[in-house]
Design a protein that fits this description.
single chain, alpha+beta, Glutathione S-transferase Yfyf (Class Pi), Chain A, domain 2, four-stranded mixed β-sheet, 58% helix, 8% strand
């Protein structure tokens, strides 16, 4: 049976999953889900994901949501020999730590700073900006002497985090002043399979959504 992926291409977590799908050369059935129209709140959708979030993956009779759970599941099932999610315990722990950092620190602080400005017309919060910049400093340190975020080769930590970092291009936050992040980001743009088609096209979609919200607030 085909793999169904419920998503919105502008979402950074959705883009992370799509980059992983491309890296694994998987064929998935993309089901565009419009949150503004409440397509994530239908009874059918709630059966597969009671939290009604995107992205959500349905593989045969198994459903999973939260992008980082999805991408590790995909590699565990379809790409163990790729090195994208190493099996050696210490290497995997490093990848997991970076994924949790992306979810619970970097992306969370980005959302806390920027989404109130876009969705509610709130003024920039200097304290929240400091917290986001602190997260970027952490990431810059992770990349000291490292080509990739979690070790000597590309992993799902890079694919997830590049979707987050690239979204900062739509804001007034200058992540390029962090030299290690900037170097890594340029490498990801050149190296990650399908980056332009998946991530940059998704960013264009997100930019249009943000502009729409700016005009309405």
């Amino acid at each position: 049976m085909p793999i169904d992926l419920y998503l919105n291409p502008g979402s950074a977590p959705c883009r992370a999953v799509l980059l992983t799908v491309r890296a694994l050369n998987l064929d998935v059935n993309q089901k565009l889900t419009d949150l503004m129209k409440g397509e994530h709140l239908t009874p059918e959708y709630l059966k597969i994901n009671p939290q009604h979030t995107i992205p959500t993956l349905v593989d045969d009779d198994f459903s999973v949501w939260e992008s980082r759970a999805i991408i590790t599941y995909l590699v565990n099932k379809y790409g163990k020999d790729t090195g994208l999610y190493p099996e050696e315990p210490r290497a995997r722990a490093t990848v997991d730590q970076r994924l949790y950092f992306d979810m619970g620190t970097l992306y969370q602080r980005f959302g806390e700073y920027y989404y109130p400005q876009i969705l509610a017309g709130a003024p920039p919060d200097a304290e929240k900006l400091k917290k986001l910049e602190q997260a970027l400093e952490f990431m810059n340190t992770f990349l000291d002497g490292q080509e990739y975020l979690a070790g000597p080769q590309l992993t799902v930590a890079d694919l997830s985090t590049v979707a987050t970092i690239s979204t900062l291009e739509l804001t007034d936050v200058d992540f390029r002043k962090y030299p290690n992040i900037n170097r890594w980001y340029e490498k990801m743009r050149a190296e990650v399979a399908g980056y332009k088609e998946v991530n940059e096209t998704g960013l264009d979609h997100m930019r249009a959504i943000m502009e729409k919200f700016k005009k309405s607030t």
